[in-house]
Write a structure and sequence with these properties.
The chain has 147 residues and is an alpha+beta fold. The protein has two domains: 52 residues, Ribosomal Protein L9, domain 1 (3-Layer(aba) Sandwich); 81 residues, Ribosomal protein L9, C-terminal domain (Ribosomal Protein L9, domain 2, Roll), CATH 3.10.430. It is built from four helices and nine strands; from the N terminus they run E-E-H-E-H-H-E-E-H-E-E-E-E. Strands 4-9-8-6 form a four-stranded mixed β-sheet. Strands 2-1-3 form a three-stranded antiparallel β-sheet, with no helix packed on it.
Length: 147
């Protein structure tokens, strides 16, 4: 089933993308949650017209995302967690902790757009990716240290 996404959906697509999903996922989850609508021919025409009208706005949004990505370039985050003597940590470090540490540095980033490269369950250095726009992303160095 083809649907038009009304908002960004992780691992599926971005707002205004036309994607193909299984019927159950589309009808039982995406459409009732208000995340998508059925891609009928008239809805596709309407989407094309809206995108044509919003082209300049989209360029500005992309430029703003690029400016924020440039601001994030070279930023590193240090997350202090409780750890055992052999270097394994109690629990794990997630995107919420990274967002909180960025907030302490004065950078406001939504936690939902931060993705860690690998599950963080030990002390060390990792990389987090911040998806600011569908074509713009930035990488942040994350150091996990013991308290």
């Amino acid at each position: 089933m083809e649907i038009i996404l009304l908002q960004d959906v992780n691992n599926l697509g971005y707002k205004n993308d036309i994607v193909t999903v299984k019927n159950g996922y589309g009808l039982n989850y995406l459409i009732p949650q208000g995340m998508a609508k059925v891609a009928t021919p008239s809805a596709k025409k309407e989407l094309a017209e809206n995108l044509k009208q919003q082209a300049k706005k989209l360029e500005k949004i992309k430029a703003d995302a690029q400016a924020q990505a440039d601001k994030l370039k070279g930023v590193s985050v240090k997350v202090a967690v409780k750890a055992s003597e052999n270097g394994s940590i109690y629990g794990s470090v997630n995107n919420i902790m990274v967002a909180e540490e960025l907030e302490k540095q004065g950078i406001s980033i939504d936690r939902k757009i931060i993705t860690l490269s690998a599950p963080v369950k030990a002390l060390g250095d990792y990389t987090a990716t911040v998806r600011l726009h569908k074509e713009v992303s930035a990488e942040i160095a994350v150091s996990v240290v013991a308290e």
